[in-house]
Amino acid sequence: MNLLSIDTTTDYLSLAIRHNGKHVLFHQQVGQKHAELLLPTLDALLAELGIALSQLDAIAFSQGPGSFTGIRIGCAIAQGLAFANALPMMAIPTLDTIAIQASGAPALVCMDARMGQVYCAKYDAQAQRIDAIRVCDPQDVMLEDGHWNAQGDGFSHYADALLPRLAARINSVDATLRPHANALITLADSGRYPLQPAQQSEILYVRNKIALTSAEQKARRS
Amino acid sequence: MLVLGIESSCDETGVALYDLEAGLIAQQLHTQMAMHAEYGGVVPELASRDHIRRVVPLTEACLKEAGKTLADIDAVAYTQGPGLGGALLVGASFANALAYSLKKPVIEVHHLEGHLLSPLLAESRPEFPFLALLVSGGHTQIMAVRGIGDYEILGETLDDAAGEAFDKTAKLLGLDYPGGPRLSQLAESGDPDRFTLPRPMLHSDNLDMSFSGLKTAVLTLTRQVEASEGEIGEQARMDICRAFQDAIVDVLVHKCLKAMKKAGMKRIVVAGGVGANKQLRAGLNAAAAKYRFAVFYPPMALCTDNGAMIAFAGAMRLKFAHGAGGFSVKPRWDLATLPKA
Known about the structure:
heterodimer; A: alpha/beta; Nucleotidyltransferase, domain 5; five-stranded mixed sheet; 7 helices; B: alpha/beta
């Protein structure tokens, strides 16, 4: 499958294109400049391959969790590109892209969720997710007996709350693993994620409680 | 020339197609009002989340309504600001990606210019120059408009926008969000002679306005009524609404008259959500008949935020169209800094 993959869920911009066996990648820390850089970078990658977007078969994107604004920039741009070129989209959870980069053993992936919390999920040795992605305080991350790999920046941001408590069950720690456009392509090949029309590709925020309703505000005051 | 317009600056997702010859040929709108009502106001993050769910289906529906395909589009206009940053980014991202793919240019549109020019989409349209009263939940400005992009702000609110004053006062009176329109509805059955509220800055020698004090005045009045009657009855509430609306309308009409005279204008254009207010329209119409000037309003459906005004403003600014690519949004953006078209 000829693919464009897009990750904008962190302060990195990660874009990759694979076309007829050729592969190009942009993976750099850009802060909050995703909007400024995504399309010009894509344009340069397409030029490097000498192809047009319409020659691809699908667009894979990190659907979250991660930076709300970052995800929406990536998703809305992917939707615009997909809609205009009649390409299907593939929505892939961000944590899955971290797990796939170090498969071979069961893994616990924890990603910094800001506000003192982590997004976390567990994976089997084939990097297949075995529970739902959730957002929680680091001290509420639980791990069954076994030999787990610990992956993701949650293990550097909240090392104290996670590592001493879970040390007996953790084999190795790699807090440097981050979402990556190449990992999106690997996952797209796995057949685990459906191809969908642009209008059906959904964002996975995980953190869904954003504000208090009027009734909740009232209850809290009384 | 066919321009696709995309609006996502606050709590309405709008997509429309404007053709330079055929005019407005399709428009789709989704309002998030019901979603935010539960929270008693617009929650920016939820607004952004909804925009991204709506923008592709609305674009598809708009093309279908017009019987057009993406290939027919000559340029993509989108609201670059002012507004909620996250919400603006959704429209900007989609618009740029679409235009990039179609190899068509983009045009960044100022949301308020969209409102300001929306009366030009009505059947009876004003000629330049005209005075504009831009009055909504976020803005209250009086401007001299001499052409596209030639805007001089003559006066504006120093604190709350008129629509904001409506909503805040409605909340204070226990009306459900968005309370402004409900307040106006109640005011229609109110007795205009029972209460009188102050007209802030009515006689100031400039064209600026201030509406935040009216909330306090309403609060004081409700306490007085409660003290003398034990509670705010249905009629008393309507009478208070009436007194409040009278005060706002009086100030707006008075300042507009003053501005017409000062700027030597013969036409006035009213735009923005509060422009749909019946009493404001009646007040301006009466003043227009008395002082012999013409008043223009946008079509009723275009008073709130919408994609049509963005497509239209984009079409008026085709000379600023440029290639799609890297972009940014402007949550704060002064209308007076726009270049003339």
